[in-house]
C-alpha cells in the first residue's frame, strides 16, 4: 500500500434519536442526545471538507436521520458539490411532502430497513407497532422517483421467515435487497445469544437465498452479507482501517468505521477541534491500524493479510479488549475459542418460541444513562 | 447489431450519477452502494445517454468527438453490458 488513501464514502450519522429500538442496533450503548448533536453549520463544513478530501458519496444515517429538520439543507449542499446522496431510513417520519422536499434538494437514493415480513416482527425486534409506516414509506420512496433499496438484518428470530421477507420486498417494489446477517457490535453483542442462529437455520436460509436469487434474476438484486462467526476467515472490514470511508458521529467525533466508538482505549478526534483532512491523514487513531505494519502474528506472516486486513478491529476489541489482535473470527486467531463458544451455545439451545419470554430477555436499544451524567 | 438496437434511446438510470472526480482526476459512475471507475470511452458513452438521442446518433456523435470510425460495435457491446448492470435504461 503506497501513499495516503482517499475516502470515497462519508457516513453522516446525523443523530442517534430514533423511533425504533432494534435489538441489534450498531449504535453505541451510550446513545448521544439531541444537545450533543452538531448543528447545521458544522455539518455543512464537514460535507465541504469531505468533498475536498475525495468523498463522492454521502450516506445520511443515524439513528433516524429524518428527525433532523435540516436534512434537506445538507442534501442540497451535497448536490451543489456534486456528491451522491443516500438516505438510510427506518421509514418512520417519511411523508410524501418530506420525500418531495428531499428529492428537490437532490437526494439520489434511499435505503429502507425492515425487521421482518409482518407487523409482529417489527414489534418483537424494534419494539414498534408501525410496520404500516414501512409499507407506506416504500410507496412514498418509489412515487418520489427514487430507487427503492431495502435491507433486513437476519438473525435467529427471523431467518426462518426469509422467503416471506423476500416476498414483501418484491411486493413493495424494491430494486435491491440486502440480507445482512447480524454483526455482533453494540446492542447486538448484548443480545448475541438470542440473535445467533444455529448452523441448521443458516443452511436452510442459504438455500432459500440461492433459490430466490436465481428466480429473481435481474428483477431484484439480492445480496447476502455473510454471518462472519460461521466463516473460517474474517471479513475484510471496511476494506482495511481508514482506507475507503469515514463516519462522523452525531457529536462530530470521526471514526474509520461506524462501530469504532466501541474501542474505548482509543482517542478519536472531533470535527469540532480539527478539520477532516487532519483527522483522516494525521490523527493517531486513523493511522493506528492503517496498512499492514501494525499486525501481530498470525496476521503478519499470513498470505491473506492483504485480503482481509486482519479482520475487524472493533470486533477484536469487543471480544478480547485489544483492538490490535487478530479478529477472533479467524480460525488461526489465538482467541478463536471466543467465537467457537458462542457457536456451541447457539447450536445447543432450542430456538425460544415464546415471544413474551423473549421480550423479557432481549435488551432493546434505548437511551439508558444520560450522556451528561456519565 | 440489428436495426432495432440502433434506434433504441438509452438513458442513464435514475439512481446513477456521472461525476468527474476533481480530487483523483478520474471519471466515476455513482450508484446507491457502489462507485465505478470508468475509462474515458465508457464515460463518454454514458455522458451521451441522456434520453435525447438514439444509439445510432450517439455513435455518430462519439465518432465525431473522438475523430474515429467504426465505433458502432464497441458502443453496442458497452451499452448491452451497462443495461445488464442496471446503469442504463433503454426505451
Textual characterization of the structure:
Chain B: Monomer. Interacts with PqqE. Chain B: Keywords: PQQ biosynthesis. Chain B: Pathway: Cofactor biosynthesis; pyrroloquinoline quinone biosynthesis. The complex is a heterodimer of chains A (374) and B (91). Chain A is built from 15 helices and nine strands. Chain A has 374 residues and is of the alpha/beta class. In chain A, strand 2 (57-61), helix 2 (71-80) and strand 3 form a beta-alpha-beta unit. In chain A, helix 1 packs parallel to helix 2 and helix 2 (71-80) runs parallel beside helix 3 (96-105). Chain B is an alpha+beta fold and 91 residues long. Chain B has helices at residues 3-7, 40-47, 55-65, 72-84, and strands spanning 10-12, 17-21, 26-31, 34-38, 88-90. In chain B, strand 2 and strand 3 form a beta hairpin. The two termini of chain B are 17 Å apart. The mean pLDDT of chain B is 91. The A-B interface holds A 6, 8-9, 52-54, 56-57, 82, 84, 86, 108-109, 111, 145-147, 149, 175-176, 178, 218, 221 and B 13-15, 17, 19, 21, 23-24, 28, 30-33, 35, 84, 86.
**Quaternary structure:** heterodimer
How many helical stretches of chain A? 15
How many strands appear in the DSSP assignment of chain B? 5
Largest sheet of chain A: 9 strands, mixed
Helix content of chain B: 40-55%
Low-pLDDT residue intervals, each spanning 5 or more residues of chain B: none
Global mean pLDDT of chain B: 91
Q: Sketch the topology of chain A as an H/E string, one letter per element.
A: EHEHEHEHHEHEHHHEEEHHHHHH
CATH third-level topology of chain B: Arc Repressor Mutant, subunit A
Strand content of chain A: 5-15%
What is the overall pLDDT average of chain A? Answer: 94
- C-alpha-based Rg of chain B, rounded: 13 Å
The CATH architecture of chain B: Orthogonal Bundle
Q: For the record, what CATH class of chain B applies?
A: Mainly Alpha
Organism (chain B): Amycolatopsis ultiminotia
Pfam family, one (chain B): PqqD
Pathway (chain B): Cofactor biosynthesis; pyrroloquinoline quinone biosynthesis
Keywords (chain B): PQQ biosynthesis
Amino acid at each position: 500500500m503506497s501513499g495516503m488513501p482517499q475516502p470515497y464514502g462519508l457516513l453522516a450519522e446525523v443523530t442517534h434519536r430514533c423511533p425504533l429500538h432494534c435489538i441489534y442496533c450498531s449504535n453505541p450503548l451510550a446513545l448521544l442526545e439531541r444537545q450533543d448533536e452538531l448543528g447545521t453549520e458544522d455539518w455543512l463544513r464537514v460535507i465541504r471538507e469531505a468533498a475536498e478530501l475525495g468523498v463522492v458519496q454521502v450516506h445520511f444515517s443515524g439513528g433516524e436521520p429524518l428527525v433532523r429538520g435540516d436534512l434537506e439543507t445538507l442534501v442540497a449542499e451535497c448536490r451543489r458539490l456534486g456528491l451522491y446522496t443516500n438516505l438510510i431510513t427506518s421509514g418512520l417520519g417519511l411523508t410524501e411532502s418530506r420525500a418531495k422536499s428531499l428529492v428537490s434538494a437532490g437526494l439520489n437514493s434511499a435505503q429502507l430497513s425492515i425487521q421482518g415480513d409482518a407487523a409482529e416482527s417489527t414489534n418483537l425486534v424494534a419494539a414498534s407497532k408501525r410496520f404500516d409506516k414501512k409499507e407506506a414509506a416504500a410507496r412514498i420512496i418509489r412515487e418520489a422517483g427514487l430507487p427503492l433499496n431495502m435491507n433486513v438484518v437476519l438473525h435467529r428470530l427471523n431467518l426462518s421467515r426469509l422467503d416471506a421477507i423476500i416476498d414483501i420486498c418484491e411486493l413493495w417494489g424494491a430494486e435491491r435487497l440486502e440480507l445482512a446477517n447480524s454483526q455482533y457490535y453494540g446492542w447486538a453483542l448484548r443480545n448475541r445469544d438470542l440473535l445467533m442462529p444455529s448452523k441448521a437455520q443458516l443452511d436452510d436460509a442459504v438455500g432459500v437465498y440461492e433459490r430466490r436469487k436465481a428466480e429473481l434474476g435481474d428483477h431484484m438484486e439480492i445480496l447476502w452479507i455473510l454471518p462472519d462467526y460461521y466463516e473460517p476467515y474474517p471479513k475484510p472490514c471496511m476494506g482495511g482501517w481508514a482506507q475507503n470511508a469515514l463516519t462522523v458521529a452525531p457529536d462530530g467525533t470521526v471514526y474509520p468505521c461506524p462501530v469504532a466508538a466501541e474501542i474505548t482505549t482509543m482517542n478519536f478526534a472531533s470535527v469540532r477541534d480539527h478539520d477532516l483532512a487532519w483527522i483522516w491523514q494525521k490523527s493517531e487513531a486513523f493511522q493506528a491500524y492503517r496498512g499492514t505494519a501494525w499486525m501481530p502474528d498470525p496476521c503478519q506472516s499470513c498470505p491473506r493479510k492483504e485480503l482481509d486486513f486482519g479482520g475487524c478491529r472493533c470486533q477484536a476489541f469487543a471480544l478480547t479488549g485489544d483492538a490490535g489482535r487478530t479478529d477472533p473470527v479467524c480460525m488461526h486467531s489465538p482467541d478463536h475459542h471466543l467465537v467457537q463458544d458462542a457457536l456451541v451455545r447457539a447450536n445447543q439451545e432450542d430456538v425460544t418460541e415464546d415471544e413474551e419470554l423473549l421480550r423479557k430477555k432481549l435488551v432493546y436499544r434505548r437511551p439508558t444513562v444520560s450522556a451528561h451524567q456519565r | 447489431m440489428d436495426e432495432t438496437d440502433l434506434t433504441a434511446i438509452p438513458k442513464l438510470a435514475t439512481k446513477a450519477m456521472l461525476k468527474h472526480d476533481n480530487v483523483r482526476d478520474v471519471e466515476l459512475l455513482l450508484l446507491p452502494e457502489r462507485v465505478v471507475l470508468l475509462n474515458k470511452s465508457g464515460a463518454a458513452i454514458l455522458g451521451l445517454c441522456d434520453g435525447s438521442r438514439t444509439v445510432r446518433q450517439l455513435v455518430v456523435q462519439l465518432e465525431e468527438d473522438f475523430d474515429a470510425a467504426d465505433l458502432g460495435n464497441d458502443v453496442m457491446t458497452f451499452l448491452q453490458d451497462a443495461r445488464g448492470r442496471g446503469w442504463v435504461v433503454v426505451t
